[in-house]
Amino acid sequence: MQLREAVEKELKAIVVTALRASGFKGSFPHFRRPLPERIDLLTFQFDRHGGGFVLPNKRRGSAASTAPRPVGGGWREAPELGETNA
Fold this sequence. Notes:
The protein has one domain (3-76). The chain is flat, with a radius of gyration of 14 Å. By secondary structure, the protein is α+β, with helices and mostly antiparallel strands. The protein contains one helix and eight strands, in the order αββββββββ. The strands form three sheets. The chain has a four-stranded antiparallel sheet with strand order 1-2-3-6, with no helix packed on it. Strands 4-5 form a two-stranded antiparallel sheet. Strands 7-8 form a two-stranded antiparallel sheet.
């Protein structure tokens, strides 16, 4: 088993379970947690040269018609929403 495969297996077994318990939806590597006042987004991104990964996250205001949604392996930004420093 390659290192990345081993890391993904452990992330799915431990971290994804904890994310689901915290109300996150989605499938690895993209997760979202819709809340009344915002939506929280998490995406696992692996280093292309191996050896690590990052977990960028965003919080967005949650207008139902303008909320970001997954598109083609990434998140499409809703132009009506501004970023928050959270």
